[in-house]
Amino acid sequence: MTTTPPTAGPGAPHPGTAPPPATLDFDDPGFQADPWALYEHHRAHDPVHRSDALGGYAVFGYEHVREVLVSPRFSAYHPFRTSRRAFGPSMLDRDGDQHQRLRSAAAGPFRPRAVAGYAERIVAPLAGELLDELVAARAPDLVDVLARTLPFRVMCQVLGLPVEEAPWLAATLAPLVDYVDHGPTTLAEVTRRREELRERLQRARAGGARDGLLADLASDERLSPAEVVNTAVLLLAAGTETTAAGIANVLVALGTRPELYRRLRTEREGVPGVVAETLRHEPPLHVTLRFAAEDVTLGGVDVPAGAPVNAFLAAANRDPSVFPEPDRWDPLRRPRRAPLTFGAGRHVCLGSGLAVAELETVVNAVLDRVEALDVQEPAPRPAGRTFRAATPVRCSVRPAAGGAR
Q1: φ, ψ at 288 (rounded to 5°)
Q2: Which residues lie below 8 Å from residue 192, measured CB to CB, with a gap of 6+?
Q3: pLDDT for 41-77, tens place per residue?
Q4: Nearest to 286 by CA among 342, 344, 355, 351
Q5: Are 337 and 365 a contacting pair, CB within 8 Å?
Q6: Mean pLDDT, to the nearest integer, of 188-200?
Q7: Three state DSSP letters for the chain
Q8: Is there a contact between 292 and 74 (Cβ–Cβ < 8 Å)?
Q9: Cα radius of gyration rounded to whole Å, the chain
Q10: Cα(127)–Cα(109) distance, rounded to whole angstroms?
Q11: 0.85 cut: is pTM over it?
Q12: Mean pLDDT of 162-187
């Protein structure tokens, strides 16, 4: 596949070394709208930063971020971790044997052969059905509806729940995600909604459903009933929020590059590169949290045991020492080091393979059905706190002649 010279596109940082317009504060509107100049500034001048706003440390360069993710000197566990309060104790905040036990119990459906089956058996039909409706209506909000609807339908099928429950699951899960994302949702609201989710999943588990991940977890003797439900809640959240953002971001990237879009309709071998580069350039999750397991010196900065350490994955993904011309969106890029979009080490995202397969399947389904997907200007830039998606997206849709292939 050939393509026109890539450009920086939406979200590229500002050149120069002047202090950035945003501050390292999830509540700062400047940070929410465009953190890239801030990341660039810290990578160059303060890569391991003590942040009062975050109540701990922030790490920006690729090598330092990767060390935080893979080194046993940093731990995912803390008894009052925000995600633990939202989802309950899970593999996300366990280390050692406990983490491995929970992870291995859930790993089967996310192995490559199983993921390929999900893409063909679940994702493609669900994406096709939804897109057929949206394309027939020439829906100007096609990208938004697809992004917020499809991941929940897919996870219903993966878990073994009726697809009709997707809207309820989305509404019930939303306060938990907002809380983890440093939003204004109260812990009381999170607790109420989490218990509603648990009750629904417990009923499904007790009902003896034989198909789906929930049934697989329930049949695993290594897991307690509470661990079955907490794992299902975590996987539901992990399999929807970031995937929804990924769908929006990759379709905006294509919808603002009509020449590339036209070429991809006949040269589908370019789709994986488009997905991979968008995940590097505009990752759905910008930061993940660890805690110093002991007194650590990182990048010349002393980090005391127990201190929170925010590892900025997105900043690492645009480190120029690892990714030449990192602010340029280049679907032909073949990096020598793996981007840290899905983390690294023992806590690398369990569902990364399914997420990539889902994004590639969605892009192919859109290319099958839409001759031209023109995102209206000004195109939205991915924005948010830790989860970042391009929204709202308005586009003009020209159906492909003869419909889907």
Answers
A1: -130, 160
A2: none
A3: 999 999 999 999 999 999 999 999 999 999 999 999 9
A4: 342
A5: no
A6: 96
A7: CCCCCCCCCCCCCCCCCCCCCCCCCCCCHHHHHCCHHHHHHHHHHCCEEEECCCCEEEECCHHHHHHHHHCCCEECCCCCCHHHHHHCCCHHHCCHHHHHHHHHHHHHHHCHHHHHHHHHHHHHHHHHHHHHHHHHCCCCCHHHHHHHHHHHHHHHHHHCCCHHHHHHHHHHHHHHHHHHCCCCCCHHHHHHHHHHHHHHHHHHHHCCCCCCHHHHHHCCCCCCHHHHHHHHHHHHHHCCHHHHHHHHHHHHHHHCCHHHHHHHCCCHHHHHHHHHHHHHHCCCECEEEEEECCCEEECCEEECCCCEEEEEHHHHHCCCCCCCCCCCCCCCCCCCCCCCCCCCHHHCCCCHHHHHHHHHHHHHHHHHHEEEEEECCCCCCCEECCEEECCCCCEEEEECCCCCC
A8: yes
A9: 21
A10: 20
A11: yes
A12: 96
Total Cβ atoms within 10 A of residue 193: 19
Confidence of residue 8 (pLDDT cuts 50, 70, 90): very low
List, for residues 301-335, the tens digit of each pLDDT value. 999 999 999 999 999 999 999 999 999 999 999 99
Q: Going by DSSP bridges, is the β-strand pair 56-59/308-312 parallel, antiparallel, or unpaired? A: parallel
Phi, psi of 55, deg, nearest 5: 70, 30
- What residue ranges define each of the domains in the chain, with the CATH number in brackets? 29-399 (1.10.630.10)
Q: Give the Cα separation of 346 and 391 in Å (integer).
A: 32
pLDDT-based confidence at residue 10 (cuts at 50, 70, 90): very low
Q: Above 70 in pLDDT, residue 235? A: yes
**pLDDT (0 to 100) of residue 207:** 75
Q: Is the peptide bond before 10 cis (omega within 30 degrees of 0)?
A: no
Q: How does the average pLDDT of the chain come out, rounded?
A: 93
Could you tell me the end-to-end alpha-carbon distance of the chain, in angstroms, rounded to an integer?
A: 21
Distance separating alpha carbons of residues 105 and 100, to the nearest angstrom: 8
Choose among 349, 338, 298: nearest CA to 71: 298
**Average pLDDT for 343-366:** 97
Q: What is the pLDDT of residues 349-358, one digit of tens each?
A: 999 999 999 9
Strand 48-51 relative to strand 56-59: parallel, antiparallel, unpaired?
A: antiparallel
- 125-153 pLDDT per residue, tens: 999 999 999 999 999 999 999 999 999 99
Asked if 126 and 154 touch (Cβ cutoff 8 Å), the reply is yes
Q: Which pLDDT belongs to residue 206? A: 81
